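Translate sequence into structure tokens.
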Amino acid sequence: MSVAAPDSSAADSAVADRSDWPAQPVEVKASAPPVDPLAALAKENELLRAVVGIGGHQRLVKALHDIAAGEDGPGCTALLERSPGGASWLERGCGGREMSSAVLRTLPDPMKLSKRAEPLPSPPPSLAGAWAVPLSGGGRTGLWIAPTPPTGGDEGRGRRLWELVGDALWNRFITAEALSAARGALALRDAQVALYAAAAQEGEPQAVLTRLLGALAVACGAERAALYTAGQNGRRIAAAGAELPRPVAAVAAEHEARLAVAVPERLAAGEDENGIVSFDQAALARVGVRSLIGRAAAVSIGGGATGASLLIFKSDAAPLPPHADRTLAWAGGFFADVLPRCTKAAAASRLARRDGLTGLANRRTFDERLTTLFAGAVATQGDLALLMCDLDHFKSVNDTHGHAVGDRVLKEAAAAIQEALVDSRSGDVALAARYGGEELVVLLPDFGAAGAARIAERIREAIARIELPAGGPRTHVTTSLGLALYPYDAQDAESLLQAADKALYAAKSGGRNRIVRAG
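Result follows.
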């Protein structure tokens, strides 16, 4: 799936001042021609990058004209300073053709304009489409005759953009420095472009969320980002960023979950700044996080049982970049729009990839993952364990107690396997599937022979605790397991399946309720 850019309802409400202008996504009037939001953002970023990066106000005026004017824009644009007596204009920079004295005489007094940026009133033909941006500071006043802002006909958005750029331009003229607001705006807009681009790519819902979180982490100057469901039993929806070794990743996930639980609590206590909950080392220690994470920040998405927490992390204690809070706040609105669509798509995808009775992965999904994980093990010179489980005397259970009991046993066996995987901190990487009938299989990448054997024993013990109704020859369910491991017992995916199946047959033949390793 791909996720369209959120509409204006997903963004923050109108911003309080010009420095927060970029917090709103592209909004296109119904009467305007279709505008590609990603292209519009990229064009606006090109302007901001010029403001931040180009030295000299004269070069900057020309660059802004070249970027924004286009073929349909005004033939000339200029940065003008009002003479001390107000009787004339002093041209301080020009883009396009030089502005004639006759045209200069038609320009409005900047002190009498009603808005900080607006289309030029009654423009002469050479300034058709131009905007007037009044400027002041340093005891001087001026006017930027600007091109039409590249905001797809959204006049309000264009006004906010030109106010910000105009202030930076005037500040460059007066002090030779760009406003820090322009730098922050550029950082946020870069983040928006990155997230919109990531959302536009095709992929499974989980892959889309992972890609978005990776882009967010980079944009915020963090090492990782994660999305968790709300509540005391918050569950990780997706995470991305710096790769961690498996044992370290498990501990990091526990720390992240603690922070996710703390986010709504701190919001309720008013321990936030504009909706952002920050965790320095002292705040981390208060929730029991004393390693791996040195700094974090979070924003809540939605509320109540359906809400979620969006978090970013870094391992050292240095503060996050100045723009990180604003970027995270905007991302909260972005994910609030994206998450329900991903959730809906994921539910449909999950139904297509899950066994209807047990909830485990179905045979098709298992075959796909076996191919993928096996290729990964070969590429990384890792290992891949395959457990094949068969419930002992299952036909007898159906014959004695009926198919309803048989279905209940299969469900409980599947739940026991899932619980064993979660308890072993392997739930994020392992795959449990219904292979067919009463056969269940588990894929364990990079667990080694000893680790796979431990999980196999946990599964055997858990299934042995499933009780059967009275009146039959057995009181509890048991299972036989065959274990095979690449690269020790097989050299390709098909032979790995055959080796596990042969080991399972040996477990059955050897008395059942046991684990047999291939080879």
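Note: The chain has three domains: 8-192, 203-353, 363-517.
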